[in-house]
Write a structure and sequence with these properties.
Elements: H1 2-20, E1 41-43, E2 53-54, E3 60-62, E4 70-74, E5 98-103, E6 110-115, E7 123-134, E8 142-151, E9 154-157, E10 161-163, E11 172-179, E12 185-193, E13 200-211, H2 216-237
Parallel strand pairs: 1-2
Antiparallel strand pairs: 1-4, 3-6, 4-5, 5-13, 6-12, 7-11, 7-13, 8-9, 8-10, 8-12
Helix pairs in contact: 1-2
Length: about 240
């Protein structure tokens, strides 16, 4: 009976191993490339026919009245006057295409997406890239700007970013773990700051949410241990030769 139980456990681990490498991403348009009315524009909280506004597919941007002072920016234009928001300095080793941008001090709006297909009580891993730059036409240091991330009723803060006058923080990667409380929850991002400063723009990209599954190496070790235990038990059950 014990051997049968161990075999069932090993079968379950094999299924988990098969699914670990390809954990299903749950975020739609996490790189902000899909828009309803073109990129490099200020966001609206609702579909619009204004050529200067757009919305992000899968996301909602709102400060309660409008889309807030939130933008989707083209990084190929971000340091030029052609950009919807002209950032003094920008650096990236990767071609990031479009990024979400929000001023933490001037009517920031909440960026949110409803996530379905969750398992209540299960753990999920959220990762995203973020940075901070300063808008052209303003001077002064920007201190302690961060993303407040909500998942259902739980909130976590990213590491705070600070830059000198005209500086750029460089891209950082944040990883957070959340436990689902229901089958559908809202994921949200809000740019915040603990200190006043010249207009800072928090940038966001590559948002990804997946089920938290064991590392393949850990599962392999567990399976090896299980097979070893099976071998030991089988040897003990083998009748002695006289």
């Amino acid at each position: 009976m014990r051997i049968r139980s161990i075999l069932l456990c090993l079968s379950a681990l094999a299924v988990i191993t098969a699914n670990t490498a390809g954990a299903v991403p749950l975020i739609a348009n996490g790189n902000f490339e899909l828009t309803t009315n073109g990129g490099n524009k200020q966001l609206s909280s609702r579909p619009v026919d204004d050529i200067h506004r757009t919305t992000l597919a899968g996301w909602t941007s709102s400060n309660g009245n409008d889309g807030g002072y939130n933008f989707v920016l083209d990084t190929s234009l971000i340091t030029t006057w052609d950009s919807a928001i002209w950032i003094k300095k920008y650096e990236s080793a990767l071609d990031r295409g479009s990024v979400f941008a929000s001023d933490a001090l001037y009517y920031p709006g909440v960026l949110s997406q409803a996530i379905g297909g969750l398992t209540p009580g299960a753990s999920y891993v959220l990762s995203f890239d973020y940075a901070m730059g300063q808008q052209v036409g303003f001077d002064g240091a920007n201190l302690n700007n961060f993303w407040q991330v909500g998942f259902g009723d739980v909130k976590q803060d990213s590491k705070k970013l600070s830059i000198e006058n005209g500086g750029f923080s460089g891209w950082q990667t944040s990883t957070m773990k959340f436990t689902a409380e229901s089958a559908e929850q809202v994921l949200s991002f809000l740019a915040l700051s603990n200190s006043p400063g010249a207009p800072p723009f928090m940038l966001l990209d590559n948002v990804d949410l997946r089920a938290d599954v064991p590392e393949p190496s850990s599962i392999s070790m567990m399976m090896l241990g299980g097979f070893g235990l099976l071998g030991f038990m089988a040897r003990r059950r083998k009748p002695a030769v006289r």
